[in-house]
Design a protein that fits this description.
This protein is mostly helical and 84 residues long. It has 5 helices and no strands.
Length: 84
């Protein structure tokens, strides 16, 4: 993500997340082995409805993402896309 920002692609990026309540609660239709593999790879660890705001955005900011880039991805780009 930071590399894409560094390369000047901010006008083409959105920040969003999916949240699968059944996976988060261990109640999904996936076999237990798939859930274990997701968790082992880190793909399903710490999922929550607020993950983007509590973990992802703070880490990106700490690593150098500007407030302007965040505003563009969270407000400007969706506004422009939805106004088409």
């Amino acid at each position: 993500m930071l590399e894409l920002l560094d390369r000047g692609h901010v006008e083409r990026m959105f920040l969003s997340q999916d949240f699968d309540i059944p996976i988060a609660n261990g109640l999904d239709w996936y076999p237990p082995a798939v859930i274990e593999a997701l968790e082992a790879s880190g793909a399903a660890n710490g999922w929550s409805m607020t993950l983007l705001f509590e973990q992802i955005i703070p880490e990106l900011t700490e690593r150098g993402m500007s407030a302007e880039a965040l505003q563009t991805m969270m407000v400007g780009n969706p506004r422009r896309w939805l106004a088409r």
